[in-house]
UniProtKB/TrEMBL annotation, chain A:
Pfam families: BTB_2, DUF3399, Ion_trans, Shal-type. It comes from the Eukaryota. Keywords: Cell membrane, Cell projection, Ion channel, Ion transport, Membrane, Metal-binding, Phosphoprotein, Potassium, Potassium channel, Potassium transport, Signal, Transmembrane, Transmembrane helix, Transport, Voltage-gated channel, Zinc. This is BTB domain-containing protein. It comes from Echeneis naucrates (Live sharksucker). It is found in: Cell membrane; Cell projection, Dendrite. The chain crosses the membrane at residues 221-241, 253-275, 320-341, 353-369, 381-402. One of its GO terms (biological process) is action potential. One of its GO terms (cellular component) is dendritic spine. Residues 40-139 form the BTB domain. InterPro entries: BTB/POZ_dom, Ion_trans_dom, K_chnl_volt-dep_Kv, K_chnl_volt-dep_Kv4, K_chnl_volt-dep_Kv4.3, K_chnl_volt-dep_Kv4_C, Shal-type_N, SKP1/BTB/POZ_sf. The lineage of its organism: Eukaryota, Metazoa, Chordata, Craniata, Vertebrata.
From TrEMBL, chain B:
One of its GO terms (cellular component) is voltage-gated potassium channel complex. Belongs to the recoverin family. Keywords: Calcium, Cell membrane, Ion channel, Ion transport, Membrane, Metal-binding, Potassium, Potassium channel, Potassium transport, Repeat, Transport, Voltage-gated channel. GO terms for biological process: regulation of potassium ion transmembrane transport. Residues 111-146, 147-182, 195-230 form the EF-hand domain. InterPro entries: EF-hand-dom_pair, EF_Hand_1_Ca_BS, EF_hand_dom, Recoverin. This is Kv channel interacting protein 3b, calsenilin. PANTHER family: CALCIUM BINDING PROTEINS, CALSENILIN. It is found in: Cell membrane. It holds the Pfam family EF-hand_8. The gene is LOC115051633. Its main location: membrane. SMART domains: EFh.
Length: 633, 241
């Protein structure tokens, strides 16, 4: 029920007394209000701005946050008010909804922030009042289009394992994806231009032999032009066939406009080849050459502006149709009038109504060639009316077409701009992420170094090293530490370089591994590969001291992605075999469901703190930590 | 219904207790308009002012004390009622159409307009076509806080359509039909065409003591007071406000 109607419910119930005397059956018992509260004012503090309203007002919509008991979560005992840490400007609209029953959308508000606020307060956007609904829907649609554009850009990202055919198709559609595609793009563009210019120059009169009339260049240098034409057509044919091969849906490709243009552009040549000997049809052959000019339309693959123009014309089809229709009407009317007006005059060129069509068209489009002119007075009068109305009829639909073109063109500009901005934005985000992971590793190194220094206990250096990290950072690092410690064998995070280095240096036996998948999706788990391999209980064959690394590793293919902390294995070392065995026997119930783990023992000498790439293999000196880190993943 | 915004409010910023004194009457837009249209206006008169005032007829209720005296509601209750009333009808008056719309919303299945019409007439005591807040609150006071006799009197007033003091069979039939209309089509057992008629017959059998074909107020009250279930049901809505 609407808000207002709820206010009238007591009245309706009271008026029900009118039914009582006529009722035959006894009435049911009325529901009683358990806690009969007097209506009270409640204070809603939204980011410092205090709104006050009656409790009843909020109770009108019990399925929203403010109308239900959910708001008790926000109650502040000391100040006896409800505090919300949200935008007070949007809250104004939300509260007005309770008061008036109508939800309004303020125009200056960003659509996503408004949607978020509505979602927070549990209000469904569909109840926006009619006055604001159209605006809301328009903005929402624009936003959705923008999101779709962004998603489409993501689709361009290269998918792994594309077949040759798919790669080719992508290369054809987006020349910027690879150098080959770009080269191909420019080559075809060049040949299109050459072909068009050839066609044009063919007809230019090239200098004549004396006593002969001027001969067009095409007939003078037949062979040269023929070779040029052949070369172009070869290129176009090859291109067409390649596109046909690469197209995901050949049937659809063959029906598309661009492919039809391609076919029409090269067909005349082949037809000409076939028909050269037949003299009768050579006349028709000449006309076929006209179709060669269609090659110029192939440029539309290369020019976005042309495509936009074509798209605009298509979308303005109705306006163009109207223009054509009204022009036709006007032409017929005026032609008829002019014909009858000029009928009387003696040497009139207006011999028939169709003949007058030419005059009407030329006059209405304000061309005025002057080859047909009215001579009678009536003819002149009607002629002037004709030219005046022509201007009007043509001027009307043209702005519509222009504005359509402008809108589509600007949309395209915006899309390009967004793409460029997005790249820059992503790059910035990536930098900041690696920055944070580096911070953790840095602090860890410093921490270890601190431990190493404990022996010397030089307070100065400790102080220097324990830099002032913010509380948030230190808590974050502590969390990652805890994660490391959770893993039974104390896996630790290291950065990418260290990891790569140790992997390369290890280079030993690789256990058969199945799909190394990179779980870089998990935020903080950091294990870069999850693997299931068999568990080996048997002592690892080369578990002799030092330098054997048996990484079970990971074909670490994911180059760019160490956005989260990468994992690693490593760390020193253990010398005695017994301790190895000790570790080996331990089952490893890790957090992940990897049922089996393989153990790898890597021994690295200490301390690995200073340089990540360091000394991965020397089993030097006594180790600080007799911990065997098992890289079991 | 009317949905004006109080643009034409020419009062000062401080809200004063509304009284139907001559001064406030003069300020009433309707009065102003009548006066303005009948007298010659000088060029200096602000014509835009009167244009705005034309669009809005507003009514201010009597003071709080007066209403407290006339009804059985407490001050707080009156305040709460007025707030709800004013929220729905900013102009201070409810006309019949708005009333019908509001009442129909409670009975979505049937057609409540006829009954709402009778109800409207029962509330609109001075028969001027619109319910003011005073009418509204007086009616509610009787229904919710009045004695049983007063309630019965009110009910009689409702049934007596032409307010002549007698309920005839035709009037009762009209009322009954409108009540059955509110039920709508989808009922079990379904409403037959003669259900209202039967019901009226039963009613008259019970109420019409002297079998003269009409029910007077005394017959009505007397019969109802003897009927236990009616008396019980009269107390049903005590706690509505």
């Amino acid at each position: 029920m609407a808000a207002g109607v709820a206010a009238w419910l007591p009245f309706a119930r009271a008026a029900a007394i009118g039914w009582m005397p006529v009722a035959n059956l006894p009435m049911p018992v009325a529901p009683t209000e358990k806690s009969k509260r007097q209506d009270e004012l409640i204070i809603l503090n939204v980011s410092g701005r205090r709104f006050q309203t009656w409790r009843n007002t909020l109770d009108r919509y019990p399925d929203t946050l403010l109308g239900s008991s959910e708001k008790e979560f926000f109650y502040n005992e000391e100040t006896k008010e409800y505090f919300f840490d949200r935008d007070p400007d949007v809250f104004r609209s939300v509260l007005n909804f309770y008061r008036t029953g109508k939800l309004h959308y303020p125009r200056y508000e960003c659509i996503s922030s408004y949607d978020e606020e509505l979602a927070f307060f549990g209000i469904v956007p569909e109840i926006i009042g009619d006055c604001c609904y159209e605006e809301y829907k328009d903005r929402k649609r624009e936003n959705a289009e923008r999101l779709m554009d962004d998603q489409e850009d993501n689709k361009d990202a290269k998918l792994p394992n594309m077949t040759f055919r798919e790669t080719m198709w992508r290369a054809f559609e987006n020349p910027h994806t690879s150098t080959m595609a770009l080269v191909f793009y420019y080559v075809t563009g060049f040949f299109i231009a050459v072909s068009v210019i050839t066609n044009v120059v063919e007809t230019v009169p090239c200098g004549s032999a004396p006593n002969q009339k001027e001969v067009p260049c095409g007939e003078r240098y037949t062979v040269a032009f023929f070779c040029m034409d052949t070369a172009c057509v070869m290129i176009f044919t090859v291109e067409y066939l390649m596109r046909l091969f690469a197209a995901p849906s050949r049937y659809r490709f063959m029906r598309s406009v661009m492919s039809i243009i391609d076919v029409v552009a090269i067909l005349p040549y082949y037809i000409g080849l076939v028909m050269t000997d037949n003299e009768d049809v050579s006349g028709a052959f000449v006309t076929l050459r006209v179709f060669r000019v269609f090659r110029i339309f192939k440029f539309s693959r290369h020019s976005q502006g042309l495509r936009i123009l074509g798209y605009t014309l298509k979308s303005c089809a109705s306006e163009l149709g109207f223009l054509l229709f009204s022009l036709t009407m006007a032409i017929i009317i005026f032609a008829t009038v002019m014909f009858y007006a000029e009928k009387g005059s003696s040497s009139s060129k207006f011999t028939s109504i169709p003949a007058s069509f030419w005059y009407t068209i030329v006059t209405m489009t304000t061309l005025g060639y002057g080859d047909m002119v009215p001579k009678t007075i009536a003819g002149k009068i009607f002629g002037s009316i004709c030219s005046l109305s022509g201007v009007l009829v043509i001027a009307l639909p043209v702005p519509v077409i222009v504005s359509n073109f402008s809108r589509i063109y600007h949309q395209n500009q915006r899309a390009d701009k967004r793409r460029a901005q997005k790249k820059a934005r992503l790059a910035r985000i990536r930098i900041s992420k690696t920055g944070s992971s580096n911070a953790f590793l840095h602090s860890k190194r410093n921490g270890l170094f601190n431990e190493a220094l404990e022996l010397t206990s030089s307070t100065e250096e400790e102080q220097r090293l324990s830099k002032s990290t913010s509380l948030l950072e230190s808590q974050h690092h502590h969390l990652l530490h805890c994660l490391e410690k959770t893993t039974v064998s104390n896996h630790e995070f290291v950065d990418e370089q260290y990891y790569q280095q140790s992997y390369l240096d290890a280079g030993l036996q690789n256990y058969p591994s199945r799909s190394p998948s990179l779980s870089s999706q998990d935020g903080m788990t950091g294990t870069c590969c999850t693997r299931r391999s068999k568990k080996h209980h048997t002592p690892l064959p080369n578990a002799s001291a030092a330098t054997h690394m048996q990484p079970l590793t990971h074909t670490h293919t994911h180059q760019q992605g160490l956005q989260e902390l990468s994992t690693i294995h490593i760390q020193p070392l253990s010398t005695s075999r017994s301790s190895l065995n000790m570790r080996v026997d331990e089952p490893a119930p890790l957090n992940c469901q990897s049922s089996q783990i393989t153990t790898a023992i890597i021994s690295i000498p200490t301390p690995p703190v200073t340089t990540p790439e360091g000394d991965a293999h020397l089993p030097a000196g006594p180790a600080h930590q007799n911990v065997v880190k098992v890289s079991a993943l | 219904g009317k949905d004006p915004n109080p643009i034409g409010q020419t009062e000062g910023s401080k809200w004063q207790k509304p009284r139907l004194s001559r001064k406030s009457l003069m300020k009433c837009c309707l009065v102003k308009w009548i006066i303005a249209s009948t007298t010659q206006q000088g060029p200096g008169k602000d014509s835009s002012d009167s244009d705005l005032e034309l669009s809005m007829v507003r009514h201010q209720p009597e003071g709080l004390e007066q209403l407290q005296a006339q009804t059985q509601f407490t001050r707080k209750e009156l305040q709460s009622l007025y707030r709800g009333f004013k929220n729905e009808c900013p102009s201070g008056l409810v006309d019949e159409e708005t009333f019908k719309t509001i009442y129909s919303q409670f009975f979505p299945q049937g057609d409540a307009t006829t009954y709402a019409h009778f109800l409207f007439n029962a509330f609109d005591m001075d028969r001027n076509g619109s319910i003011r807040f005073e009418d509204f609150v007086l009616g509610l006071s009787v229904l919710l806080r009045g004695s049983v006799t007063e309630k019965l009197r009110w009910a009689f007033n409702l049934y007596d359509i032409n307010k002549d003091g007698y309920i005839t069979k035709e009037e009762m039939l009209a009322i009954m039909t409108s009540i059955y209309d509110m039920m709508g089509r989808c009922t079990l057992p379904s409403v037959r065409d003669d259900s209202p008629f039967e019901h009226v017959e039963k009613f008259f059998q019970k109420m019409d003591r002297n079998r003269d074909g009409v029910v007077t107020i005394d017959e009505f009250i007397e019969t109802c007071q003897k009927d236990e279930s009616i008396m019980a049901s009269m107390q049903l809505f005590e706690n509505v406000i």
